[in-house]
Amino acid sequence: MRKTYRRAFRKTGNDALKGMDLSVPEGCAFGLIGPNGAGKTTFIKSILGIVQPTGGTVQVLGGSPEDPRIRARIGYLPERLHLPGTWTPTAFLSTVARLKGLKADAPGNLRLLERVGLADAVGRKIGGYSKGMRQRLGLAAALVGSPSLLVLDEPTDGIDPMGRLEVRRILLEEVKRGTTLFLNSHLLAETERICDRVAILADGRVVREGRLEELARGGARWAVRFAPGVDAAALAAAGFSRGGAEGQYHVEAEDPAALNTALDRARSAGALLVELRRDGTDLESVLLGTVAPAGAVGVAA
Hints:
This protein is an alpha/beta fold. Helix content is 36%, strand content 21%. The chain contains eleven helices and twelve strands. Strands 4-5-6-3-7-8 form a six-stranded mixed beta sheet, sandwiched between helices. It is globular, with a radius of gyration of 24 Å.
């Protein structure tokens, strides 16, 4: 898919998306990350039917994003959320339901407000809400009608750490229910905690995509920490190499069977396992390692 924004009185336009090709598996938690200006917002608007592609096609939930029946199955939380300050939250959710062609469900709206942590603010006007409360209400609106697809743009913006934990729990519950989650966030730690697949967008193209554990891991390399007193020579013979800190080692293992075989060799040499984790990098390092080389050849972010 391509999207070019035409400029008045100019022959050339701004290419926001340059042949973007992306497929999001049904029922997964999918994260879209990338630098500012990469085209993330344009892509989100395209799958919502707000922006028409210059070239290529967009298919959502098996149909066109312009189909009202498809739109009714999508829950959306925009990055810049504008809410009617004179309304109550229940009136707002009722309007959202009506726009989706759903029947009035006052008890369901109250349950949604309670679920996002707004039970104590039901009778207040939205104009008196804090930014974090507005985000919570926006999430409740996105959940109206139990959508098949949730498209969330910076869902935890302005929410405190405890609130982020609550939002994360809600989103994971939705994924467990079978909802497809499409998340765009600059908070990469939140993306790591929620999403199982990630796409990195740079200069209007998908430059990397896949399961998070595959993108972030260091191949088949594992980081191991043993209790003090371990025989370094015996561990070296068992295939473990020394790490940077005391008691830390690394081992290569292609699968769980190979990993347990190596650990059995270490234990037979008297080593006591204290910690085991995959020796990978965080999502921020993956993003920087993927996008930074593009700057070296003058690709605009």
